[in-house]
Amino acid sequence: MTWGKTTLFFLQLFWTVHHVTAVHRHDIYPYGMFYGDVTLQEGDDETSEVITLTKPMYFYEASFNILYVATNGIISTQDLPMEKQYVDDGFPTDFPVIAPFLADIDTSKGKGSIFYRQTESPTVLKRAEADVRRGFPDATFTPTHAFIATWENVSAYEELTRSSGPSNRINTFQVVLAYNEKDTYALFLYPEDGLQFFGTRPKESYNVEIELPARVGFTRGELSYFFFSRTEGPYYSVTSNEQSVKNLYQKGNIGEPGVWLFHVGNRNSFQNVVPAQQEAVLTKAPPVLDAVFPDEDYTDPDEDEYSIDPDFQDPTTTEFLEPEDSSLLERLNQEEPLGQSPLQPSVSDPGEFPHPDPRNLPPEDVTQPQRPLPKHAILQVYPNRVKDVPPHPSGGQVFSVEEKVNFDSGVIHYSTDNKETCERFQQQCSQNAHCTDYSTGFCCHCNSGFYGNGRHCLPNGAPHRVNGKVRGTVLVGGTAVQLDSIDLHAYIVVGDGRAYTAISEVPEPVGWALMPVAPIGGLFGWLFALELPNSLNGFSITGAEFTRRADVTFYPGNQRLSIVQTATGLDTQNYLNVDTHLQGSVPFIPPGATVQMEPFKDTYQYYPSLITSSSAREFTVVSAENGAETFTFQVKQNITYRDCSHGHRSGLETQELRMERIFVMYVKEERILRYAITNKIGPLGAGEPEPENVNPCYSGNHDCDTTAQCVPGEGQLFLCQCATGYSGDGRNCYDVDECAEGLSSCGAHSHCVNLPGSHRCQCESGFEFGFDGRTCQDVDECRDQPCHAQALCSNGPGSFQCQCQPGYHGDGFQCQPQNGRPKTQCEHHRDSLQSENGGVPLVGGFIPQCDEEGQYRSQQCHGSTGHCWCVDSRGQERAGTRTPPGTLRMNCDEPGRPKTHCEQHRDSLQSGNGGVPLVGGFIPQCDEEGQYRSQQCHGSTGHCWCVDSRGQERAGTRTPPGTQRMNCDEPVIVAPTQRPETVCERWRASLMQQYGGQPNSQHYLPQCDSSGEFSPVQCYGDSSYCWCVDRNGREVAGTRSQDAVKPACIPTVAPPTMRPLPRPDVTPPPAGTFLLYAQGQQIGVLPLNGTQMDKQRSSVLLALHGSIVVGIDYDCRERKVYWTDLAGRTINRASLEPGSESEIIINTALTSPEGLAVDVARRRLFWVDSTPDKIETANLDGSDRRVLFEKDLVNPRAIIVDSPTGTLYWTDWNREAPKIESSSVDGQNRRILVQDGIGLPNALAYDSTTRQVCWADAGTKRLECISPNGTGRRVLQSNLNYPFSMVSFANHYYYTDWRRDGVIALSRDNQSTDEYLPDQRSHLYGITVAPPHCL
């Protein structure tokens, strides 16, 4: 046996064990709809829409912001010409091209797909960084963005004839562009068996059998040369003939066949593309041979099959460079981001995730197995990058989890040497969370009292707000409507799961057409849904960074709308930011139509980093043109987010979201689209419990404050607990000012900013947050070399100083040789201020600026306050030249002029406070000529108005904050809806200025409503010291209280009227028994089915714009409804016959008419007037009016009459001595029925079955009854919210509730409850029952 044969034998054995295979399809970068890819339109010559990069990318030496993907295997940085201008030509092209496989490709009729996306996914970026390091070991490159395009199973263009069919050859390949602010690298990936054709025939080959090999490489395109000429730019070609195309999957240049890496761009200088330098050769493992020594030299029979084309020139590769084995597990290890599960399926089964065997992990780290991802998901993977991660240490070491495979057990073991730990990365956790280390990494968990995913945490029970923009194009009935960054705001009452969404400036017709698209606001309902037992709402899982994409398909028209909503974190106010993009078409809805949607349920499926759901829903469009029409739409959605794979998982697989009330409307006059949805989330298939078994916390029938959490107890018991950051008894909660009370977590060099329920820390000027995101560190301004070249920079805490070197003079920013001259006055002045503090200027102090000659610069500016002014040669300020920060500075080189009236006005207000304007006070704005600017705005209140040349306000021009401002350069036409400032607003502004813009809890500020009128209840600051006022702001006697429950005050001014108005006639109610209830400007009808409220048939009986309907009763004999109008100060009635109009029966000597009762037997009317404190009576037509009682009354509210006995009952909620009284209908036998144990007896009813008087008390929260003789008092319910009025019918009590803004039904035996909440949410007042005949 010769030495050569022995060597050959061992080489053969080596190749048997260790060989290199091409990259597999499932090993290329993840792609497809599941990962959020966009699919290019099918066709032979298609180009994507412009792709705007989130950050620019360098290609060669130039920076580009846009990309285009084309069918024919290329990416370009500019829009492409028609394919015939380049696809059959040679390389290079005359436009910029990145070409993984330039050929005539065809994807029409389902022949393959092309996917693309840009991403900041840590998974992708970490893998790309590792791939670049494999090809360029000496490169220091950390990508921040990536762009991935994948051609999957695409075909070559073929002209089919009768004699030839399709070839069925398909190709799959991929390009990955990884880049940061400096460099760009390109990866071309060609999986095994991914290239089945290597070129395409030209379209104009005239039946000549010719095939052009695919072109692979890069070209810069033509460049400008001189002024009018162009020249060919640099290019780099990888292929030259068919064999070199085949080599794409047979070879590679980073140690793996089929993977090619190139450096394709740099910010500083770049001549041409540089390929990687680690060659890999595809080899085939021969069969294992017996140890037989051949007698002659061994030759490989397959040598020709795997020969490498000698024409393939790659000067960077060596002949036999030993490839490195890169197993899939190692690659997955490189891809796994901080605290996030890998989304790639395992090799063995595309539908499963590899996960450690829990038996081989320490007990405290045993995690639940992950659910397999669905094989066909819809949408994109989590797009947001990891923020505030400290850079890698010098030397380029990457800290990652090292996975080692135990081939005996198949279990993945983790090395903890370089794992991510809390010590290094806890800044990624919320300030209201704690960090926990596990064997494979760390996870963030919200502290007690907060909910979220640990990276973002919010206080339990506190209401939340969402802000964002809506963009996109929506096609409505053939008309494309562009939505250009319009505002979206949502308010969520987390304790009840109520989500209110408003989108402003929505133009017609898309405003009407988007009414059915409640899924836009449905996202916020799911995020903050009321959690039933053993469930979690969306925010508890995703936190504040996720992407939600929904595809909505409408039937029968097959219109399709895509909704993409991206949450980008919490803002400085701790509110969620969500941007919404709409694209597609929706059905046309006639203007003025209404949309009704029934409650429904949706099932959510939970996977690692992915949540999906699919549902179909119905909606009804009611319009004058078409009546009621029912349509259907289907919603498929995916929500992708960052999941922490290291710690304990929630174990959720499915949950059911219940949307119990849905209200949608479009307000044409305001161009506002509104969605209101009540949401609960719970386990799937839990069933509907009996109403009496539902705890009030889960039914929402509790009286906890909106800033409190309802904590369920046993049975019907519950506890109201103020949210974290709030204090109070749970029914009335107030924000805790952590800054004022010293409860903040702010450290040195920072100050505290109070937020609702929380606070944030803000670094002082000259400081910035360190890597931990919490500690303020000094900013070394000297790093940026701000000083003159001949000056020294001295950094100090929060500031820096520039000082000219010896032999030079100046302010440090400009230095000139001294030439032996003495210092000037300005230089002495400047240097003396600097030398007083050891050469460092006093922080916040003014330092004069001198020019090159040492003279005062004509314009001086204060570095801390931002004010600037002109000075004379002695450095003295020139009067009238001072400008505040952010305004246009004076031209100090112009001759001085005397101050104008505006400037004197402005400067007098400023100089009264040391040159600093009074906080909260108005400062007039002057233009460059010193004249009043035509538009003035109050910096504190946000109001703006137009003024004349004297600075006097022009009537009718004032606009409140958030509305469109007037054009003050046009003549003003005062619209009817515009109004001057009200008494309440003027009083409030005056007191605000008196308090210096910062009133404290001891100061009183009038509370005004949206119309500027006095709010009916007034309070001192945030206290519970409250009272009622009339329309002029005067206190109503007997209403002042310091109880936790605010007084039951009724507004005396109707809200503004919106036109056009419906006719004020009666809409016939349905047959049978129904409830009538007063709701401000309308009277509503709620039919009863037995004693059950038929909510679906509720309607409006009368629309009474400009009214405030309070008391209401029904005359069963003549079928007429009677009511009091607090705004009109009238008593009215209307027949229930169709078309009947209301009539006024009393309109004199009424001030605050409230409760009202009809004596059917005696045909008399009784009412209370709460301002003069009287009880009066009259005939039903208003005649024979007389006063029954006008003494010993303070705040009479409810009144009822028991006709059979002729007894009158009324309540007086005098806060000092509340009582319930009775008398005969003629005013005789007046006596007190109840005066102990009551607080705010608003509601009163007579139960004819039990022959008892019953009342509902908003103070004690109880429903009680008592016999007319004062005996048999009993409590029926002790857990009411805020009742206002009540009626008894059969064995039920029905009362209106101010906390729920609805009608609550309660059975006499307290065994069942129900509620009806009208779509229009506002206070409900009186309520009565209207039977079909007198009982």
Automatic annotation (TrEMBL):
Ranges annotated as biased composition (Acidic residues): 293-312
Domain Nidogen G2 beta-barrel: 462-691
Annotated signal peptide: 1-22
Domain Thyroglobulin type-1: 823-892, 899-968, 981-1049
Domain EGF-like residue range list: 418-458, 693-734, 735-777, 778-814
Main location class: secreted
Pfam families: EGF_3, EGF_CA, G2F, Ldl_recept_b, NIDO, Thyroglobulin_1
Gene3D superfamilies xrefs: Green fluorescent protein, Laminin, Thyroglobulin type-1, TolB, C-terminal domain
Subcellular location: Secreted, Extracellular space, Extracellular matrix, Basement membrane
Annotated NIDO domain residues: 100-267
Protein name per Swiss-Prot or TrEMBL: Nidogen 2
